[in-house]
Amino acid sequence: MDSIILRTLIIVLSVEFVIGNLGNGFIALVNCVDWVKRRKISSVDQILTALALSRIGVLWSIIIALVLSLQNSHLLMIGKIIRILTLTWMVSNHFSIWLATSLSMFYFLKIGNFSNSAFLYLKWRVKKAVSVILLVSLVLLFLNIVLINRQMDGWIGGHKGNLSYSSHLKKFKQFYRISVIINTVFLSMPFTVSLVTFLLLIFSLWKHLKRMQHKARGPRDASTTAHVKALQTVIAFLLLYAVFFLSLVVQFWISEFLEKSLMVLFCLAAGMVFPSGHAFVLILGNSKLKQASLSVLGRLKCRFKDVNTENS
After folding, report:
1. pTM of the full structure
2. What is residue 146's three-state secondary structure?
């Protein structure tokens, strides 16, 4: 039974890895091709391209760690390998989440409708506001790396001592628990920002609909449509992010049972839903990307029909 579940989880992870690379690779490719053609790229496309590339990095860092652990679990007890894999995942995952949060903020500032002076100030300086958010995130990334490196140095220092394998494993579990706590604390910050953005978007939509009722106009005007589309994108992001966040919390509770690979694989599968699935949410929510995807699907359908015709 365990072997069947193990194979199923590995298949799920493989599918998520392939789908995530295809989706994020498609976003990056379409925006890069459009950039070369037009000789310019919008702020949203810049964020989307960087977001897609960072998520490809997240997927590869996870799958490499998984392959190493399945082939030889002792490799993940080597300090240098742990440091490289941990820092690669941290940096790529940091940009993945903060770029998605910046995208939510961008939509909010562009679409939201408030008379508050601070909001209006930010609304006319959207690019600067997003740049400041990313700069602040870099400071948080630096602090995160410093804290994780300090814990890693302590574990590696103990690892070099003349200790038994069980002692090494115990120290590794301690390092793992602390690193999960640190990463969870830092990753909760962009989630909070996105949640506040979501609530403010709902409030902005409510105010707008109330204003439209007084003016006796239909509810489906351009501003309402923009609000609804932005809310759909942010809701999808928050739901997928919540799954990812919960997978981290579960990893903390199972850190005493790291040898139980089924639980670890389940958490990885749940966590990979975020970087893989959100790419398709972004494609469907962006008119240019959606049109490009429909064009590609149309061509593939025609090719498939031609092949079937030749075979028959």
Report:
1. 0.83
2. helix
